Amino acid sequence: MQSSIIIALFCFFYIANATFLPRAFDCPEAQNGDVDSAFSFPGDCSKYYECTDGLAVEKTCGPGLYFNEEKPGCDTAENSTCDVPGGKEA
Question: Fewer CB within 10 Å of terminal CB in the chain, N or C?
């Protein structure tokens, strides 16, 4: 009886996780042997994803800094390539 309840709870949480929680960032396929790269975080200029060997890690820039895809990394607002509508938002 207890094992049935545990299995039912596991299935419930698995389905809820797959249905309601946002998916993690999927790193693009490596091109030209470059496996390490960074990508902007949708909707927040102060965050970005760092991809290493296909795994994404969410990173946050320091106070007053924003993601710059050209660098890539954190930079001042003037140098940031962030594309959030309405400007740089932390």
Answer: N
Q: Is 15 exposed, middle or buried (0-12, 13-18, 19+ CB in 10 A)?
A: exposed
Q: Which domain holds residue 59?
A: 24-90
Residue 75 lies in a domain: yes
Q: φ and ψ at 75, to 5 degrees?
A: -155, 175
- Indicate which CATH number applies to the domain containing 29: 2.170.140
Domain count, the chain: 1
Return contacts of 82-88, CB within 8 angstroms, 24+ apart. 82/40, 82/45, 83/40, 84/43, 84/44, 84/45, 88/45
Residues 61 and 74: beta-carbon distance below 8 Å: yes
Q: pTM for the complete prediction? A: 0.61
Distance of alpha carbon 79 from alpha carbon 3, whole angstroms = 57
